[in-house]
Design a protein that fits this description.
Low-confidence stretches: none
Helix content: 25-40%
CATH class of the domain at 231-331: Alpha Beta
Number of strands: 20
Mean pLDDT: 94
Bound molecules: flavin-adenine dinucleotide
Structural class: alpha/beta
Shape: globular
Radius of gyration: 22 Å
CATH architecture of the domain at 231-331: Alpha-Beta Complex
Number of helices: 13
Strand order of the largest sheet: 5-2-1-9-16
Distance between the termini: 37 Å
Strand content: 15-25%
């Protein structure tokens, strides 16, 4: 590989990583990605689209209100305003880059509606192919961009600092560890879904970036808030394919084995109730021994061929004919509201370290994310971070070489990973309580000790511990975080949570 030293390093090649890299032109950028460009991201699977107040009857204040309303009382209003205000311009950037968002015969963007949005404001591509088309477009641009070097198949494992300032990052392929000297690193490693048994997230979503940042001294925020999507396909495929929320908007029902619509027992809006309520309701039905299904039979099932081609194809590949068969579903770990604490410039508390996309926690989502606000956050902060880096680049680059022995990371064996995923699902999932969380903490801490005693790094175990510890501390039900032993909202806990690696007392 060409020497990547003294470039800006972006870890991760999802929407957050690629958009930031493109925006950083003409500065030299290195993208490190654990998989080949165009694969291994959640971004490519995003179905519904991007939320932005672009409609004539819509407004920034309405989008802001919806974002705050679902966030469980702890959304950072200043950040939320920043994100929704920049939304329309960033969507226009994607259009200028060539993303073929759906338009009507008057060449106006088609704006769709999703749960908890007061207005039609979701831009999408062919109904449910948004992520795929965005990523195809950006991947082509990145491949042709002279200012971007791509290092594929490497995992970033450890951040290095001198005097509290980023000086480099270790990357590893199999057993080979290499060092990239850089004063500026943007972490864009995505979510944590693969820490759970059933998830919609890509295999790479192991929370590596969060654990790595924590070990370097970054502050993490809102780690306890994990959003479970209620309607993932429960057909033994990992990751579990997603049946987009828009299907319920179009009339799909949620039923049990006896064809009963049980969600109404939990919420007056039935299938269109907030995600966490639908997920918990399905989880409880499963605990009572029932199987749960998405029922699109009849007209909707037939319309899926054109209106929801991705989901339709997934059904057919799994031997399901949606106009005749019910689709088996389950809640699945889908989105992490928590992550590396960032400010209005996308900066962390470590000099030279930025975070963007799902591994960051800017505060826009609070305790629950408004549908289609995550792709939005990724592009808004990708732009903000690139501007901030450009303004500060000459001040920050110092060319100091670090001389250290590089530690090795060791991935969890399949057996250990499955054990971790089972523990997180059973004790740190849709419903939690003190006893289960303490049990989970003790088991995962032992797993972590095995690694450190052998001198290895494992970032995903650190991330798991940070989630468990944060869930233990929040003794209430707020947004996506539900404590069986504290099932009510506690107004005294009406603020974001913060945690560091040192709080784990390992
Ligand atoms: C099925 C599905 C549907 C969704 N639909 C929507 C939607 O319609 N609208 C919406 O707003 N949001 C949606 N979301 C959420 C949204 O897609 C994600 O939050 C967003 O794409 C995250 O982008 P990202 O760039 O942060 O991470 P990703 O796109 O997940 O990219 C992460 C990158 O980091 C790399 N990586 C990870 N660890 C390392 C490491 N240690 N070293 C090197 N590289 C590493 C990965 O290989 C990958 O390249 C959906 C999510 C899923 C899973």
């Amino acid at each position: 590989m060409n020497s990547p030293n003294n470039s800006i390093v972006i870890v991760g090649a999802g929407l957050a990583g690629l958009f930031t890299a493109i925006k950083l032109a003409p500065l030299n950028v290195v993208i490190v990605a654990s998989k080949k460009l165009g694969s291994g991201t959640s971004s490519q699977w995003a179905q519904a689209g991007i939320a932005a107040a672009m409609g004539k009857s819509d407004s920034i204040s309405s989008h802001l209100k919806d974002t705050i309303d679902v966030g469980g009382g702890i959304v950072d209003k200043k950040i939320a305003e920043l994100v929704v205000t920049n939304g329309p311009n960033r969507v226009n950037d994607l259009i200028a880059l060539g993303v073929p968002f759906d338009k009507d015969t008057n060449n106006e963007l088609i704006l769709r509606k999703e749960a908890a949005h007061q207005h039609n404001r979701i831009v999408s591509v062919r109904g449910d192919m948004t992520g795929k088309k965005i990523m195809e477009t950006l991947t082509q641009i990145v491949k042709k961009s002279d200012h971007i070097q791509i290092i594929e198949g490497y995992n970033a494992t450890e951040l290095h600092q001198i005097d509290g300032k980023i000086e480099g990052i270790s990357i590893q392929k199999d057993n080979k560890v290499e060092l990239i000297n850089s004063n500026c690193v943007v972490l864009a490693t995505g979510g944590i879904g693969q820490l759970y048994k059933i998830t919609t997230n890509s295999k790479e979503a192991l929370g590596d970036g969060v654990g790595m940042a924590a070990r370097a001294g970054a502050v993490l925020s809102d780690m306890e808030f994990v959003q479970f999507h209620p309607t993932a396909f429960d057909i033994g495929i990992d990751p579990a394919p997603l049946a987009t929320e828009a299907l319920r908007g179009e009339g799909a029902l949620i039923v049990n084995s006896k064809d009963e619509r049980f969600i109404y027992n939990s919420h007056k809006d039935g299938e269109l109730a907030p995600r966490d309520i639908v997920s918990r309701s399905i989880f409880q039905e499963q605990q009572n021994g029932q199987k749960v299904f998405l029922d699109c039979r009849g007209d909707l099932g037939e319309r899926m061929i054109n209106d929801f081609p991705t989901v339709y194809q997934l059904c057919r590949n799994s031997g399901i004919n949606p106009s005749e068969d019910k689709i088996p579903i389950s809640p699945a770990a889908h989105y992490h509201m928590g992550g590396i604490l960032t400010d209005e410039d996308g900066k962390t508390n470590i000099r030279g370290l930025y975070a963007c996309g799902e591994n960051s926690c800017s505060g826009v989502h609070g305790a629950n994310r408004l549908a289609s606000n995550s792709l939005l956050e990724a592009i808004v902060f990708g732009d903000i971070i690139s501007k901030n880096i450009k303004e500060n680049i000459n001040k920050s680059m110092s060319n100091r070489e670090i001389r250290i022995t590089l530690a090795k990371s060791k991935s969890l064996s399949q057996l250990k990973l499955q054990e971790l995923r089972s523990i997180m699902t059973e004790f740190v999932g849709v419903e939690r309580d003190q006893e289960g969380l303490e049990k989970a903490y003790s088991i995962v801490k032992d797993m972590h000790s095995e690694y450190t005693l052998d001198g290895f790094i494992n970032n995903s175990l650190i991330t798991s511990l940070l989630i468990i510890q944060s869930a233990l501390k929040r003794e209430e039900h707020r947004g996506s975080h539900y404590r069986k032993d504290f099932p009510k909202l506690n107004q005294k806990l009406n603020s974001r949570s913060f945690i560091t690696y040192n709080d784990l007392e390992l």
